[in-house]
Amino acid sequence: MDHTELNAWLRLMLSPGIGNHAARQLLAEFGSAPAVFEQSPARLRELGTEKLVSALLHEPPHLRAQVQATHDWLGAADDRRVVTLGDPNYPASLLDIEDPPLMLYMLGSQGGPGYAAIHNVAHCIAMVGSRNPTPQGETNAREFARALAGSGLCVVSGLALGIDAAAHDGALLAGACTVAVVGTGLDRVYPKGNLALAHRIAQQGLIVSEFPLGTPPLTANFPRRNRIISGLSKGVLVVEAALKSGSLITARLAAEQGKDVFAIPGSIHSPQSRGCHALIKQGAKLVETVEDVLDEMKPPASRHDDNAAPDRSSPTPGGQTGPTTPALQPDALLVALGFDVTTLDALQARTGLPTAELQARLLELELDGHLSRLPGGKFQRLASA
Question: Which residues touch 258 (CB under 8 Å, ≥6 apart)?
Answer without folding.
Answer: none
